[in-house]
Automatic annotation (TrEMBL):
Transmembrane segments: 12-33, 90-110, 122-155, 167-183, 214-237, 272-295, 307-327, 333-350, 357-376
Protein name: Glycosyltransferase RgtA/B/C/D-like domain-containing protein
Record lineage: Bacteria, Pseudomonadati, Pseudomonadota, Betaproteobacteria, Nitrosomonadales
Alphabetic keyword roster: Membrane, Transmembrane, Transmembrane helix
Signal peptide limits: none
Length: 537
């Protein structure tokens, strides 16, 4: 009964709602700030484009999202597909901010139960939220806020296992891992790194009686989640699950296809022990407050074991992900330390006045250390994010792709376009209505013809460097396949095609329209005179 009342008080308490709203507003501003300075997460655009592409199928069903991993994040994005304008573009950032604000509201509720004053709670939340790792996780557009919330629950579940040592504690921890798999592609690394730490967390008597049962109970939900999804992929895909999961650009590959462009992987990729040592150093520089928490927990043996596990858990997961060439930077894993620190503060006895000042100071030092470590071997994405957060205006985000997307939005007709090459334009357009994408039957039928019959055909300059090396950055961004239309009709970009005339030419994109076709709304970006005056090589 008491637990039920506590659960209800969290949702009914007016203060929870106020904290959530203020946190959502603050995180929303933090997300808007880099976007205002032209920062756009390439991976967020890639993930959002897959949702738009999925809708292009005539027999689309919601359950088809199971083909896209991670599933829960894609299902949440799917809710925003019917929206328009800025809300639709900002959907990945908005969802991440909602869960980040929910995490802060839940943490405020737990701190209040520990009798922290309102002033202390505000200071603690502010110090946690200004840490660059927390901001990077919440504002990068990859729904890091949801992953932070899940890791917070994971850490609380592990402490419950230490304190309660009952069957429900094991089941709860296993369920959290099982759900986590559908939230974050890094879950398998987090889980494998957690296994050797179980002796620190699980009750000694249970480990002595039946160590295999301890591992089995905790691992079963995650194993069932993974196996069921792999079986599903093997059933619906002719190529098989492994071929799908190992395809370039899939979440399971991580940064593997960008090894040559990422300094962290060039130096530490494929090596477990050197990357483990480096990640521990980065973790301590980013969160020296963990050492403070270990020192404060020295008289609480059970909590000390869990906090010590926190100290090495994420560093081990970082090393595993680096050894398999998955992780582009330690911050992409270590940002979850923020949730672990939040849980540890809740679980320790409330600090007295002098110790609270020390905690505040260590959190502030951690924030400073976070900016220092984030500047060490950063990815191009991190460099641009850091510059945008500092107020520097970045070059426009692939302006030629964005311009094509706006043009396609104004000139809506049946259009043949390869989404692998034009996924940024697809996101700018906002939907896939009327588009013949590469996986549709209409697109495949067109490729069998010497001359396509689509009303409009989008072709990319065959000389355009594959990998999208542009002035926007030196890093090879999300690797998508070459433009299938250009490969099939390789002379169309330069010489056109019988029965078609040029209606759009900007940058490395051209659009040809069938002579008999006209836009559904009568709009066009070129007059006839302008189109005729264009010189085609």
């Amino acid at each position: 009964m008491r637990k039920q009342q506590e659960k209800e008080s969290f949702f009914i308490n007016p203060q929870t709602g106020l904290v959530f709203m203020f946190a959502l507003a603050a995180l929303g501003i933090a997300s808007w700030w880099p976007i205002y300075h032209n920062f756009v997460s390439e991976l967020a655009i890639d993930r959002w484009s897959k949702i738009i592409e999925a809708y292009a199928s005539e027999d689309f069903r919601v359950e088809d999202i199971r083909l896209l991993y991670p599933h829960l994040t894609n299902l949440l994005l799917l809710l925003f597909y019917p929206t328009t304008g800025l809300i639709k573009f900002a959907a990945p950032y908005l969802i991440s901010c909602i869960f980040g604000a929910g995490l802060l509201a839940l943490w405020n509720f737990h701190l209040r139960e520990k009798n922290y004053t309102l002033r202390d709670r505000i200071i603690l939340m502010a110090l946690v939220a200004i840490h660059p790792y927390f901001l990077w996780g919440v504002t990068d557009g990859l729904l890091g806020g949801l992953s932070l919330l899940m890791f917070y629950l994971l850490y609380l579940s592990s402490v419950r296992l230490i304190k309660e040592a009952d069957a429900r504690s094991f089941i709860m921890l296993g369920v959290v891992f099982g759900v986590y798999f559908f939230v974050d592609e890094r879950t398998l690394f987090i889980f494998v790194a957690f296994l050797p730490l179980l002796p620190l967390i699980a009750p000694r008597n249970m480990l002595k009686a039946s160590p295999s049962s301890v591992y089995l109970i905790i691992a079963m939900p995650l194993v069932l989640s993974v196996v069921s999804w792999v079986v599903y992929l093997s059933f619906v895909l002719d190529e098989g699950a492994w071929h799908y999961m190992s395809s370039p650009g899939e979440s399971f590959r991580g940064a593997w296809h960008q090894v040559a462009e990422i300094e962290w992987l060039r130096d530490y990729g494929g090596s477990f022990f050197s990357s483990l040592l480096a990640s521990i150093v980065v973790g301590l520089i980013s969160y020296p407050v963990v050492l403070w928490l270990v020192w404060r927990a020295r008289r609480h043996i059970k909590l000390l074991r869990d906090i010590e596990a926190l100290l090495v858990h994420l560093s081990t997961a970082t090393a595993l992900a680096t050894a398999t060439f998955f992780l582009a930077h330690p911050a992409d894993m270590l940002y979850l330390t923020a949730a672990g620190v939040m849980a540890a503060i809740v679980l320790l006895p409330r600090e007295i006045r002098w110790y609270r000042g020390g905690l505040f100071l260590m959190l502030l030092i951690s924030a400073i250390g976070g900016w220092v470590s984030l500047s060490w071997k950063p990815t191009v994405e991190m460099q641009r994010w850091t510059k945008a957060m500092s107020g520097e205006v970045l070059p426009s985000y692939f302006p030629e792709d964005v311009a094509l997307g706006h043009w396609l939005d104004k000139n809506r007709m049946p259009t043949m376009v390869d989404e692998h090459a034009a996924f940024r334009a697809l996101v700018t357009r906002g939907d896939s209505d009327g588009l013949m994408l590469s996986f549709t039957q209409d697109f495949k039928k067109m490729l069998q013809k010497d001359v396509p019959t689509a009303d409009q055909v989008v072709v990319r300059d065959p000389q355009y460097i594959h990998g999208d090396r542009t002035s926007y950055g030196s890093e090879v961004f999300t690797q998508r396949l070459p433009d299938g239309v250009t490969q099939r009709y390789h002379d169309m970009y330069s010489h056109g095609m019988d029965g078609y005339h040029l209606v759009y030419d900007q940058g490395h994109w051209r659009v040809y329209r069938r002579n008999e076709a006209s836009p559904l709304d009568g709009s066009d970006s070129f007059t006839l005179t302008q189109a005729e005056s264009l010189r085609i090589k």
